[in-house]
Design goal:
By secondary structure, this protein is an alpha/beta fold. The chain has a single domain (31-160), classed as Vaccinia Virus protein VP39 (Rossmann fold, 3-Layer(aba) Sandwich), CATH 3.40.50. It has five helices and five strands. The protein has a five-stranded parallel β-sheet with strand order 3-2-1-4-5, covered by helices on one side. α2 (45-51) links the parallel β1 and β2. The longest helix is centred in the N-terminal third of the chain and has 13 residues, at 12-24. The protein is globular and about 40 Å long. The relative contact order is 0.15.
Length: 165
Amino acid sequence: MNFSASNDYCGDGRFAQHSVIMQHIDKLELRPTDTVLDVGCGTGEETKSMAGKVKSVTGVDASEEMVAVAVKTNSAPNVTYSQWDARAVGDNPDWREGFDKVVCFFVLHWFPEQTQALRSISACLKPGGQALVIIDNHDDLLIFTQMTSFLKSHEKWGAFVQVHV
């Protein structure tokens, strides 16, 4: 997957997504000592906004173009960007159980393998960590139901799942 329309990314749809993210980001208890993984960071606006509240943020996106835009427009001393697929972030030994918080905003609907991506993303959390996943489910209630079911039944994280619709 390579999202090549990075120039069109900041249109009206992106403004709506950003608004939703900003409404919900405070559900995470961001602390100055936290390390955060932003899976599907796009051009890095939210990545950089979290950076002012935490120790460090690692933004990853499958698109080389998005990562390039993020580096150019939303860098900070405690932010790093990397090209990486959401379905494989948990395979990186440096990231496995390496983050206090993990966020994933409006990304999972791009993958036919949402369960694989969720498993990989959750593998990056330290024990006791928090994840905030926001999905676009207006077109596919089945995907939302399947992902919610997976999260609630996850042996490590299921007890902590809260679904806000």
